[in-house]
Amino acid sequence: MRDALVAAAFQLFLEHGYEQTTVDDIVTLAGAGRRSFFRYFPSKEDVVFPDHERCLADMTAFLGAGTDADDPVGRVCDAVRIVLRMYAENPTFSVQRYRLTKKVPGLRAYELSVVWRYERAMAGYLHERFTGRHDGALRADVVAAAVAAAHNNALRSWLRSDGQGDATAAVDHALGYLRATFGDAPDDAAAEEQEDVVVVISRRGAPMWRVVREIESTLGQD
């Protein structure tokens, strides 16, 4: 019934336009009642994005199943591929929806709210992983926004081509660029400690024991 309602809705949207189609029109064509429609979809907008709630739940579960050994940036890149697979499973439907959202401002706003929820899921995961790091909260928000932007850039390019070409390769290329830019670098404070350099000046010809003593003294060792 859920699939029948989605199919009926998009048939009517394509034939008559989104604004001209009512929920009553959809349920009549699908052979269902209004109660059935609202059991699956809280609003007419939701029937345009029928899989996003499931996809968001899958992404959240994937991030929650990560371990401390995971590269946080790599983990969110893998998580956003879940969204890509949802689109790639049905290219015809995805292209139809893309064309529809371009025409209807209200749907475009709804889609942006969906993207924001994906971004917030990734940011929440990164906030936990970057806790205690220098600018950890800032880094989490920037990386989450960048992952969403890279994914959407490649995805929309694929949709504009009517679903032709390899969507996975396009998204992998965009995420590869992001990982090269925002890879899991060490915390700034730790990096400063690792880069600490000590220079000791000693008299030419001084015996090695004296040079070692000067180094130990410089480092504060007895």
Compact summary:
The protein has 222 residues and is mainly α. 73% of the residues lie in helices and 0% in strands. The radius of gyration is 27 Å and the shape is elongated.
What's the total count of β strands?
0
- Strand % is under 5%
How many separate domains?
3
Low-confidence stretches: 185-195
The tally of helices reads 12
CATH third-tier fold name of the largest domain: Tetracycline Repressor, domain 2
How far is the N terminus from the C terminus? 79 Å
Tell me roughly what share of residues is in helical segments.
Answer: over 70%
CATH superfamily of the largest domain: Tetracycline Repressor, domain 2
The major beta sheet can be summarized as: none
Relevant terms:
Arc Repressor Mutant, subunit A; 12 helices; mainly alpha; 222 residues; 73% helix
Describe this structure in words.
The protein has 12 helices and no strands. The protein has 222 residues and is an all-alpha fold. The protein has 3 domains: 1-44, Homeodomain-like (Arc Repressor Mutant, subunit A, Orthogonal Bundle), CATH 1.10.10; 49-185, Tetracycline Repressor, domain 2 (Orthogonal Bundle); 193-222, no CATH class. It is elongated. The protein starts with a helix and ends with a helix.
Strand-helix topology:
Blueprint: H1 2-16, H2 23-30, H3 34-40, H4 44-48, H5 52-64, H6 72-88, H7 91-103, H8 105-129, H9 136-160, H10 167-182, H11 188-194, H12 208-218
